[in-house]
Amino acid sequence: MEELILEYFRQMHDNRYKIDQVDFIEKVKASEEMTIIDIRRPEDYEKGNIIGAINMPFGPAIAEGLKRIPEGKPVFVYCYSGQTAGQAVLTMNIAGIYARSVNLGWDLGIGRVEGYEELVTTEPTCLSESVRTIDPMVQAEVTKYYEGLSEVSDTPFRNYKISEEEVLSIAERKDEDFIILSVRRAVDFRSEHIEGAVNIPFGNETADGFGILPKDKKIIVYCYTGQTSGQVTAGLRLLGYDAVSMNAGMGTKGNYPFGWMNKGYPVAR
């Protein structure tokens, strides 16, 4: 598993396993060949989804559906804000499925693109009947990953996430049971960061830096909007770390009013 996680980051393209929401909508409009996976809750999928999207709700359904994701087509994944899609994308890629997440998900990305409504349907799309081969070891680890969500469903760490408010409390009381990890660029970390945080920038060498992190503390990962921290959180958890990602990251104009700085929380410089 360690080699797969290292490879995931080392072979990362400039797209960072993401696609801009406008580019995604343009591809759908052009009827390009692709597989679209909607990992929102079934009730939200039923209210409206992008034409052709398959519903694989965030959780065990993703592990169960891996072998039925069609081969030979690009795979695009969306959730609500892009954060849980980041986790899903990593688990799919280590299973041999090249997948990217749609920037900022349905609520903050797709739903803000002009004309997206014409591509929304209430009709479901089914998984392929074809079966791809998934390495048994990877399948077992990904299944374990998603089954583990039930253990945190009634805690502050639901969906392997943590709220900005919870992190503020942890930072203010300097709780030594937690490590706060920023995966933002080094220049942005130097400019402003959550007090007490350490920095391992997101990129090709991210996983090479995991060795400095303790396995006996809970690691809180944050980025800009929560999306790349979702990828890092998944990688860390699959390597045996107790990691969660902070909701909405430091915050940007694109995901306002969510995120640490969008909420006016203090930063260290």
Automatic annotation (TrEMBL):
Q: Domain Rhodanese spans what residues?
A: 30-118, 174-269
Instruction: Please give the InterPro entries that the UniProt record associates with this protein.
Output: GlpE_sulfurtransferase, Rhodanese-like_dom, Rhodanese-like_dom_sf
**Which GO MF terms does the UniProt record name?**
transferase activity
Record keywords, A-Z: Transferase
- Name it: Sulfurtransferase
Protein's organism: Youngiibacter fragilis 232.1
